[in-house]
Amino acid sequence: MTLTVGSSNKDLDLGNSAYRAPSIIEMDISLVVRNQMKVEFPHGSNTVVLTPPKGWWNSTLPTVLNSRLPVRISSDTPFWIGLMCQYTHVGGGQCEIRDRSGSHRVPIVISRNNAYGKFILSPSVKVPFKNSKESANDFFLFEIEQSKVDEMRKRPGATYKGIVTLIVDATIPVGGM
User: Can you give the pTM of this predicted structure?
Assistant: First the structure.
């Protein structure tokens, strides 16, 4: 790392003396990485489209709408997952999507699913995890429950949207390690 002190008549305060030359000081800095975290999503996964599990062209009416977003989380330290929502459902426990007019609102259940279970996420609570080793089977599930899908079916042609931000962050203790 090279730090430039300045042009003439500039110095560093190294005591009562003036040090005018050199104007470049080289410093060796050693960094120790104590935590390693990596979160990987598939390319182009910034949009999630909710569909019936068996597709739109199935002869039965959809009971749920959902979408899976694969994720690989690798962390050797504790971390948490939370949500930020463009629209927060009444009570603050879930995100929601809205039709274009904003007159119909639908809560969306978002969870992290892995080999250890299903963990419901919320914009009001940070869900903690001890650590995570890479797993190809991890995914986030976005889901609309049956009763809400029934309400949505009463509005044919409606388009629902909302922005949800998944936050995955290391739990780093304050102070020395």
Answer: 0.75
